[in-house]
Structures are given as structure tokens and as C-alpha cells.
Amino acid sequence: MDEMTCLHCDSKEQLKEWFASIRKVIPKDCKIAIAGERVNRIYEYWPYIPEDHPLKTSVDLYFLGRDDDALYKFLSDNYRLRKEKFIFDNQSNFFATADIPNQIYTDKDCIIPQEVLSIEISRGCAFNCKYCNYDKATVNKKQMQAIENDFNYYYEKFGVSKYHFTTECFNDNIGFVREFHNLTKRLDYKLNWVSYARPDLCWKYPEVPELMLESGAIANFYGVETMNHEAAKFSGRGLHFDKIMKVFEKFKSLDPNYMIHAFFIIGLPKDTIKSIISFGEWISKQNIIDSAKFEVLGIMPLMTDAVKLWHNAEYAVDPKKYGFNEVRFYPDFYWKHDTMNHVQAVRLYNYIQDKCKENPYLTGPVLDIVNLMAEGIDRSDYKNKSTFNNDIQEKILTEYFDRIQMVP
To answer: Which of 72, 102, 323, 326 gives 20 to 30 Å between its CA and that of 121?
Structure first.
């Protein structure tokens, strides 16, 4: 179950090391709390996570669901402990349609010069992927004037012009993409940003890659999931893999330094052992995708005690409809559908990882790009710095906690 419960690390050993690096630079009495979408997965799998797993031994609190005022409510004793380390408020189901807050950073946040700030530009997802439990078919975009005000405020206050946009999909609306491009042309400074995106709109509207790059995109995370078109369509992703690659090639032709980080799922219904082996041969030789992240298909337990917090994935609601002959969570996680089972998918995952190592074009972890931006390292040098992430991360954390000590 590590592929579902190790955050952005590849194993629980790597996650343990990551938490240890955090503990090195934070005060001894400082608690570690985690919030965000991945916490929902951790909550669902909690009974099946081993007691010695770092998620149980290294984390003090989890804020479950989605709530802008979670920390404030917790400190004000307005939150209740739901289960062991988990805390949540049942109003979280209104998250996708709630107003997105403005200017969340203040002088007391110890913003480091040239820091990359995370700001929210939309909530909800316009799509309906069958394996996903995000807020579906509901998109709430932040007003463009409010986004512009945030940019100007943070630039004047902190000198910040680099951002990681938190959104399910930056480019799911052509009107938003065009308006955002116009916004950046009005600024007196150049933005750099990374975010999640999809190739669909880039194919439908050929102007989108150029608009994104001109507005400051230097890298994006794309959920490609599979090169098997039948499996993609069955899971709710319609664009053919060949067209996805043409979109990526267009980005690269416009800006060779633009970085493409792709996510893939091993084991989707209708995907086959043969198609994934073919994909392994392709990924070992391609030179368009800069880095790739893989997960073995996970199916969430059907949750009835937290239905107000998130949508259950359709695979969990009706597994038989999507070809699953068996799904179990205890004593070990296992699924089986007509073309593959979980054990085979894990083996194929290891095979794909080995094939990636054969390709010198591929870089290291996808989230290195944020630290890359923070340090001002030129993207053309990135492939020669695949081991720099841990050192930079520790440096950023140390500098941040040094600055915290100076806050009145």
C-alpha cells in the first residue's frame, strides 16, 4: 500500500528519511501536521497502515477534508478529534463552491526573497475520471482581478514573482487561459509559475501552449495515466496518447526548456500487460517528457462516515461496473479485473521504474522544480542537478526557521 500512503516519496523508507530531515530543522516541541487531498487517502487506508509506518510514527495531526480556517478552528478548540490523529469539520463539503481567500500571506509568514509561493486560483474539477475522488464536475475559478491584486501585493510586499498554483487544472477553461495571459501582459514584472494542467484543451485550442508559455509557465504536471487509448477512454480520459504527445512536442518546439512532468497509473481496467511493456520500451527512449511519476492503481475503500468531505471514486462505488472481479483491503490490498491483477501491476511498476533508469533524458523527482525555481537555477542546468533537491530543501527550511525566530 506504499504507493498510496507515502505522499510524494517512493517508499516508506524514503518518507522516514524526509520526516527526519524536517525534524532536524524545526523546534523540538513543534508538531508536524499534514493537510490536503492526500490526507483523505491516508484516512481511508488508516486501518491497513502498519503501526511502524512513518505516517503513524512521525505525524502528530492530520487535518482531514478541506477547510480554509482549519488551523484557526483547531487553535480555537472548535475542531473535534474524529479518529486518533484526524481532525475535521463536516462543513468541508462546501469547499469547491466557497469563495477563494485573497492575500493569505502576511509579514509574519517570513517570506524568503525569491521564494515560490503557493496560491489558489481555482477549486473543483471539470472532469469525471472514474478512479478519482476529487470534487467532480464543479469548477470555481478565482476572479481575475483578485488574482492580479494578489500578484501585485506579493511583488510589492515581498518581491515575489514565482508561484506554484494550487488547482486541479490550470487550463480547463479557454476563457480563463486567455484572461490570465492578458493579465500577465499588464504586469510590470515577469511571472514564473508551475501548476497542474491537462493536454485536452491544448489540443482543442492550439493557441493554449503559446498562451501558457507567454504568461510564465516554466513547467506543468500532467496526468497522462496510460498510453492505451481503450483504457484511457474507459477511465474517462478521451484524448489519444498520440495527440497528447503532439501537444507536448508543441510546447517543446516553443520553449525547449519548458519542463513536462507526467503522471501514469499502472493497472487501469482494459490496460494490459502487453501494452504496459510496450510503454516501458517507449519511456526508456523518449525525449519529450522530462520526468515521470508512476503509481499502481489504488481503489479507495467506500467511505460512508465521511461522505460530506469528498466524492467516492466510481471504482469504489461500483467496481463490477468497471470490470473488477475482486477487490479487498485486508489482510492485504488486492484487486483483479479482466486484464490484470494487483500483483502483476506491482511487477509492471518495478519494470517501468527500471526502464526509466535506462533513459538519461529523464530527471529526478517531479517536485524538484519548485525548489529549482526558489534557488533560481536555470532550467537548462536542471538535468545535471538531479541530486540537489535534499540539500536545497534543508537550506530553505533552515532559512525559514531562522527567520521565524526574528518575528515579534
So the answer is: 72
